[in-house]
Amino acid sequence: MGGTKIAGALVDARGELLVRAQRPTPAREDGATVMDAVAGVLETLAASDDWARVRAVGIGSAGPVDASRGTVSPVNVPGWRGYPLVAEVARRVAGRPVTLVGDGVAMTAAEHWQGAARGRANALCMVVSTGVGGGLVLGGRLHTGPTGNAGHIGHISVDLDGDTCPCGARGCVERIASGPNIARRALDAGWRPGPDGDRSAAAVAAAARGGDAVALASFERAAQALAAGIAATATLVEIEVAVIGGGVAGAGEILFAPLRARLRDYATLSFAAGVEVLPARLGADAGLVGAAAAAAQDIGLWQVPEAP
């Protein structure tokens, strides 16, 4: 569930997507209209012959979410504030259990089950895109926290006197490392788009590959913020690996090379220094696969994946 689209799938025990459904999110409409779109996705899935085999339903939603209450308040969907999404979905799925997690936690579940964190008992997985989200695997299990938001690394403060983040805090990882902030910082420092006028982080990455010093500096600053956040997490809960996905991760070594270098500056204690940084593997399907994995864990179907 996101501000642009509502996607659904039937996911089997191997993580394969058997049936898909998708509708645009009517993000500026009232809450009932948004729920009608969700219901339409569910109806498409329920029309499949495989629906009878469904054991549980998982929801990965843009946040904030509150799994303890079963509610969601996506920032980009103003008609949903404290909306009882779990109860509304449960009414439509014939008594099947429904699990709610944030979208970063869903991505984490997917990467642990089928992706770059497979076989790792302790991991941080991150989505670096328009925002910065994340989730944790601890002791071989998805660690959602009471409200389904544990591991939200984007709102760790890494610059105590930094800019105010939309969340209200100062110097958050997201305020420095998200795509829009990479582009904003480059523009403020004098970078200018090419003839196509593209002002996105992807355009900044392209300029960085071409050797543009301002573009490179903006990505290096983002990498520094991510490194500080990863090191803080490693120090707190002893992760083995940090997996990074999302649009900004598409910059490749323009992001990952300075990130690994700066991580050595921050993860200095022996138990944190060995954290491996890897790109995510599952791409756009991570939310769907991860929502299924979170639901499977909730009903006791989850098994710790073996290393490939």
From TrEMBL:
SUPFAM superfamilies: Actin-like ATPase domain. It comes from Streptomyces eurocidicus. Belongs to the ROK (NagC/XylR) family. Pfam families: ROK. This is ROK family transcriptional regulator.
